[in-house]
Amino acid sequence: DVKVTQSSRYLVKRTGEKVFLECVQDMDHENMFWYRQDPGLGLRLIYFSYDVKMKEKGDIPEGYSVSREKKERFSLILESASTNQTSMYLCASSYPRGHEQFFGPGTRLTVL
Amino acid sequence: AQSVAQPEDQVNVAEGNPLTVKCTYSVSGNPYLFWYVQYPNRGLQFLLKYITGDNLVKGSYGFEAEFNKSQTSFHLKKPSALVSDSALYFCAVRDLSNSGYALNFGKGTSLLVTP
Predict the structure, then answer these.
(1) Which of A74, B18, B21, B97 is most buried (most C-beta within 10 Å)?
(2) Fold annotation for B3-114
(3) What is the mean pLDDT of chain A?
(4) Which of A23, A25, A43, A110 should we substitute to test contact with B (largest number of B Cβ atoms within 10 Å)?
């Protein structure tokens, strides 16, 4: 069965902390994505990667960075967490060329 | 640029009645279209997609969607709603003329099915 896992379901951090969100997929997918989900705004793309060590900015990359050292793992990094980064973070993966994306369960991050 | 619009924040329907969740899209080329469902505190689950072929697409849990090119719509439908269908529904689009791999998601429609 297809599986995307995220390292934490709930996370509470303090302003200014460096935060790592990890995502692992077991489907050998080339593409991986990080979204944030906020009420009334839907899903917004932060970054995506179409291959190891490759990354592309999405719609809202400011304040975030990513790392993809292995095909199955895609990390989202908040260099210095701020309260406006409190959100639900969703990771997804897919084959290229129009295939559906498979989502992880999400990490609800609260920055105090 | 590619985008989708879900004009209704919430749809209410009685159990057993047909349901429709609306989606319109805007792309410069031919679209790939998707519907996802999200249950509380969960990730998104794929329901169905339109790539090419028949305009009526059947998916999981008895859902179907109709691709209408002239109206640029991709409405989600189910003939008989269940209380367990209550969830948040997202429409998404990818523009085939766009070499990127990401999808653009709508803002979501909350479906409430009452007994």
Answers:
(1) A74
(2) Immunoglobulin-like (2.60.40)
(3) 93
(4) A43
